[in-house]
Amino acid sequence: MLKTDMMTIRGNRADSKIIIAGPCSAETEMQTIKTARELSKIGIKIFRAGIWKPRTRPGNYEGAKSAGLPWLKRVKKETGMLVCTEVATPLHVFEALKYGIDMLWLGARTTANPFAVQEIADAIKGVDLPIFIKNPINPDLELWIGAVERIRSAGITQLAVIHRGFSTYRKYKYRNDPHWQLPLELKRRYPDLTILSDPSHISGRRSLISEVSQQAMDLDFDGLMIETHINPDEALSDARQQITPNRLREILESLIIRKPGESIKNHLTLEKLRSEIDQMDAELLELLGKRMSVSDKMGLYKKENNLTIFQPQRYSEIMSERSQEGLSKGLSSEFTEKLFKSIHEESIRHQETIMTKRSRSAKGSGRNK
Ligand code: PEP
Ligand code: MN
User: What is the enclosing helix (H) or strand (E) of 240?
Assistant: First the structure.
């Protein structure tokens, strides 16, 4: 549990919540300090900035590294905000402590690795500062809990978790799927744990941040971590999801903070069900994509064997069989027929593309001979 009295902001609707804001990365001293000043003006009490950036692929901006730590120290001195950064190795922990960083967080890639978490836990032993643990990149609640246990065993009493969504192979709406049921299950099992949400890494784009922040508030999260930059378009990392301090102020002012209680319980159920529907829709699309690739193969076969694309008998068979099957699953024949008509049309469109493409290239290669 986090001692939150000093951490909540005052003077807007989210005033009972912990709001952490700051750039994805501290890029230069000026960018860091200017962003911090703007945030301090709107009442933010905790400043975040990545110093060592875990990048999925090498060659991207990897952070200012230790050279950026004095900038955070300056933020603290000039604005009075508490400062926090991500640590992924014992060396990061020692460096951060040397520069008086107030709080540390473990990133999603680190939480996914118990060896790394244990090394960090050993490095912070004896220093009781607030630690935030982001969820692992994969939707594995036990791994997340395991990281909490390791850090707690190091004697950390001010512990919080940050829900930043989970990686998926196919991206639909979100950069990282929220799978709200996981943080909610964590809350159910550990009611005293402080839970924040990170709408920036869930959304991956600015336009979704307000919506995801409100969802987290409706689910009674204790606060938000939101990436904020004085010039988001020029950011060296996560540019698409960073917002200006002014936009952050607007979002915080428009949040509706509900009283915990029945309405939240209903929301939990609703969110769980929505999440199940999202998952099933993803599976449906995956399957339709696979169906189309089989259809593509058929297109090729028909071309090679001089068969017509549309075979009326097969079409009527499919329609009547599917319609019967649909009825046995509670789906009206009208719906099933519409659905399969639409799938069939898409399939024909695919096969036509394949046939025309092949014949054009066959003509082209003839000309070159
Ligand atoms: C970050 O906070 O900038 C970051 C790298 O987050 P995550 O570990 O959630 O990807
Ligand atoms: Mn980021």
Answer: none
All domains of the chain, ordered by start, with CATH? Answer: 4-258 (3.20.20.70), 265-365 (1.20.59.10)
pTM confidence score = 0.77
- Which parts of the chain fold into alpha helices (H)? 29-41, 69-79, 90-98, 108-111, 114-124, 141-153, 181-189, 199-203, 209-218, 245-254, 262-304, 312-328, 333-367
Could you tell me which residues come within 8 angstroms of residue 214 by beta carbon, excluding any fewer than 6 positions away? 255, 256
pLDDT tens by residue, 159-190: 999 999 999 987 788 999 999 989 999 998 99
Contact (Cβ atoms closer than 8 angstroms) between residue 191 and residue 178 = no
Nearest-CA residue for atom 1 of ligand 1: 24
| Residue 238 alpha carbon, nearest atom of ligand 1 | 3
Pocket test for ligand 1, best of 57, 86, 200 (most atoms within 8 A of CB): 86
- List, for residues 231-261, the tens digit of each pLDDT value: 999 999 999 999 999 999 999 999 998 876 6
